[in-house]
Design brief:
Helix content is 45%, strand content 12%. It is an alpha+beta fold and 152 residues long. It has a four-stranded mixed β-sheet, with helices on one face. A hairpin with a 2-residue loop joins strand 3 and strand 4. Helix 2 runs antiparallel to helix 3 and helix 3 packs across helix 4. It is elongated. It starts with a helix and ends with a helix. It binds FE2/S2 (inorganic) cluster. FE2/S2 (inorganic) cluster (FES) binds next to helix 5. FE2/S2 (inorganic) cluster binds next to helix 5.
Length: 152
C-alpha cells in the first residue's frame, strides 16, 4: 500500500498520529519510519516535521533506522529478569550474531529490548512482531525463530 493510501484511511486529526505512524512503519519493508514517512505524516496532519519526529523518538515501538523483517522484543523488566531474561538475551545475541538494536546479516531479525509485556506469569517473555511468547528457553526461542524463517 502506498503512503497516500495509508494516510487516507484516517481523518487528518492529530489524535490519529500514532495509528498513522504505526501503519506507515508496518508498511515499510524495513520496518522503520523513513524521512519520507515522517514528512508525509507531518504534511497530512499539518504539524511540523519536528513534532512527528519527536513522537517517533519518544516511543520505543517506533524506529528511525531500518530494521529486519521481524522484530524480536525481549522483556527486561524485573520479573523476566529474575526468570533468566539476561541469559536469554546473551543467548540470542550470540546465536543471531547481533547486539541489542542490531539486525542479522540476512535482514531477517532485529533484536530489541522492551519493558513489561504484561505476561509476567509466563516470564521470561518476548514478542516476535505482534505475537507474544512466554516460558522461554534457548531451545524454545530457537524453535520459534526457525519456524519463522520457514514461513518467509
Ligand atoms: S516483566 Fe516481563 S512480561 Fe512482565
Amino acid at each position: 500500500m502506498n503512503r497516500e493510501a495509508i494516510l487516507k484511511k484516517f481523518e487528518p486529526n492529530l489524535s490519529n498520529i500514532l495509528y498513522i505512524m504505526h501503519d506507515l512503519q508496518d508498511n515499510n519493508p524495513e520496518k522503520y519510519l523513513a524521512k519520507e514517512d515522517i514528512e508525509a505524516c507531518a504534511d497530512y496532519l499539518n504539524v511540523p516535521y519536528s513534532y512527528v519526529h519527536s513522537v517517533a523518538s519518544f516511543y520505543t515501538m517506533f524506529s528511525l533506522k531500518p530494521r529486519g523483517r521481524n522484530i524480536i522484543r525481549i522483556c527486561e523488566s524485573p520479573p523476566c529478569h529474575l526468570m533468566g531474561a539476561d541469559s536469554l538475551i546473551d543467548y540470542l545475541k550470540g546465536s543471531l550474531k547481533v547486539d541489542i538494536g542490531g539486525t542479522t546479516k540476512d535482514g531477517m531479525f532485529t533484536l530489541e529490548l522492551t519493558s513489561c509485556l504484561g505476561v509476567c506469569g509466563v516470564a521470561p517473555a518476548m514478542m516476535l512482531n505482534e505475537e507474544m511468547f512466554g516460558n522461554l528457553t534457548p531451545e524454545k526461542v530457537d524453535s520459534i525463530l526457525d519456524k519463522r524463517r520457514k514461513e518467509i
